[in-house]
Amino acid sequence: MTTGATADRVAEALTDAHRHEWAYVLAATVRVTRDLDLAEECTQEAYVGALETWPRTGVPARPGAWLTTAARNKALDRLRRESVLRRKLPLLVEPDPSDDLADDVATAMSEPGTAGVPDDRLRLIFTCCHPALAPDAQVALTLRLVCGVATPDVARAFLVPEATMAARITRAKKKISTARIPYRVPDSDELPARLDAVLTTVHLLFSTGHTAPAGADLVRPDLCTRAVDLARTLARLLPRAAEVRGLLGLLLLTDARRGSRTDPDGNLVLLAEQDRARWNPYAITEGLRHTAEALMSPDCGRFTLQAAISGVHAVAVSSADTDWPRIVVLYDRLLALWDSPVVALNRAVAVSFASGPEAGLALVDVLAEDPRLAGYPYLPATRADLLRRLARFDDAAPAYREALRLTANDAEREFLQARLAEVLTRP
After folding, report:
1. Can you list the pairs that 387-391 forms with residues at least 24 positions away whose Cβ atoms lie under 8 Å?
2. pLDDT tens digits, residue range 101-146?
3. Are residues 208 and 142 in the same domain?
4. Are residues 167 and 68 both part of a single domain?
5. Which of 200, 233, 266 is the last residue of a domain?
6. pLDDT (average), residues 243-264
7. Do the beta carbons of residue 215 and residue 159 sit within 8 Å?
8. Which DSSP string corresponds to 207-257?
9. Using the 8-state DSSP alphabet, how is residue 146 labeled?
10. pLDDT tens digits, residue range 22-37?
């Protein structure tokens, strides 16, 4: 440890520690407290303590270990005080034999530091993504607890008032407590189903950032980065899980296009028109490696197949050079595994490029009868584009209007309005 540190150095170290060590610190502290709220308070206090201490003592060589020790010590002090209080006020506090705080303190004191134990982070992730919680609560809790995102920022990510998000997170924590959801990694027989919930949560988080449901910006880079970081963490902790590697490959290959999805004015740019020289070659290379490794496993599933589809796009030097028949085959495999109308819609788009827009439109017209796609804006948007490609401009206009009615993202709305104006001026 160095002696003293500048404010900028401390701020930089704490920012890095918040991004990379928060889950370590909180997970290790939860193991002591068995209480998410108390653990979160102690973790926050540890970071505040670092802000006060490190300018005098210097940034530790292992910031995560320092923060973990500080948070656990604060938690132990709280538990000791509560234990003493219960012993001194036996007539005022009804003892709960299932919740012996003295035993908690003794157990915690006997445990070694756990900042480097992967299972602690896995316990935290699986707890946040427990299937007993609603999907939106899983994502919110993962952002708040695993990623350390402040509640106001989580609220902004989902375009809800801060009070609404705070209540949602509080309800999720309370459900974990009242339902006695165990803070542990699932047993091997439970893992496949539980892991799918975790991967779905991370993918939903990424999707929310990749195309924001509403607002002025098409992309929320902070959410994309958080999701990729979570996928990397899972890949390190579960190196033999093919679907984890497949998800990481999918996110990397998709996120590699981030810089080309809008022009300098923030306008949406379709995949076919993107400048592929702006795609991130490092993310593509890493994403293809993870995808190839996942595909070699007999256990590869829906995330791996989606990664394979993204890989076909990534290796094409142009839109015209894309192997669309191969993409259709991959979508066929994906639909056989996962009966999703959204996947079927994406397959219809692939068919339209492999066999012509007429073939794609026939599939889309069938999907229009699927009630699961009611209110899904990309259904009328896809239909409008196919009709435009077929020069059926009079039919395309009402489809564009329907897509506009259902779309809340400003960048997508501006794109659709431009296309609507285009078909209205065609003869």
Report:
1. 387/361, 388/419, 388/422, 388/423, 389/352, 389/357, 390/357, 390/358, 390/361, 391/426
2. 334 333 333 343 333 334 677 788 888 888 888 888 888 888 888 8
3. yes
4. no
5. 233
6. 95
7. yes
8. HHHHS-SEES-S--HHHHHHHHHHHHHHHHH-TT-HHHHHHHHHHHHHHTT
9. I
10. 888 888 888 888 788 8
